[in-house]
Amino acid sequence: MNEAKDKEKDKPRPGLKPVADMVGIELGSGNRGGTPVVRIRRGAGGAFELAAAAMLPLDSTLPAVGAMASKSGGWVLPKAFQAPSAAFAVTSDDALLRQASGVDEAMADKEKARFRTQLHAEDGDSLPFVAAVPDAVASWAAHLLPEGRRPTAVSIQVADMARLNAFAVSPSFADTNGTALLLIAGASSTALAIFNEFAPVLYRKHSIGSRDVLEAVCRKMNLDEATARDILNDTLIDPTAVIEPVLGPLFRQAEMSADYAVRMKGCFIDRFFLCGLETGVRYWADVFKQRTGAEIVPCNPAQEMARTAGAVLPADFENLAGAFVPAIGAAVAAMEGA
Prior knowledge:
Number of domains: 2
Helix content: 25-40%
Strand order of the largest sheet: 8-4-1-2-3-14
């Protein structure tokens, strides 16, 4: 019975065409420069291409869940972003992405009734990925845009999952055999994900981030924050001895996770990637090699993505690129799943 259903599900649906044009928006980013918005198109052979990106002056601050109410479409996007469909990446303390044996375990500390939940479980050997946002958030987001650019049924995503989606379509990952370990550094935490056969099989979040490294340099070297940032982006003074004790436990977790992947999934990991950092990339990579003996490759899916002819991008896109990753990830996942 289930096999028959699976075969039926996999049959091409008459008249359904792949989504070729999508706007991606991050809600709740907290970016003072505006709301990160991208437009993604399918190029030759179905490859994703970046057609436009900007920090738009839209108020995408998420109200408190209890204060949310559906609103009529109030946003009018600039012409360069008027794609037929839209996808949202949601950054919120009320959203979650966890790997657990089921919804009840993943939501032990959440009010389950408030959430719209999607399970991601590719095979019986892997724990499912539980990604969820409250129904109130999904409803609020769905009414932000005018008719014609509303989200599709699969296009409201947790930003953490969107970042994995963006990496999954990056040229850096495409050049591997589909097995890799990814670290996504945030200010107060770092996500660790392991991919096997180009699909995520392990996801963990550790409470060590770029802010911890910056504060250690400030404290141990008696520096103000601006000077500490300069040191982390330069080679005149080596702060490795200061930041190694901070990053050591995180990289030990990476080693243990790689060992777990070999034992449980039979996948040997020899490709390591680092995303999300704005400062100190060189020193994170140096400490990683000292602790594990392996090279970790810095990558930025937004910078790597192919661009359409005449793509509309800000002049300082290379510096801003990291801020667009969740919006890109939401868009490409919606285009694949619509």
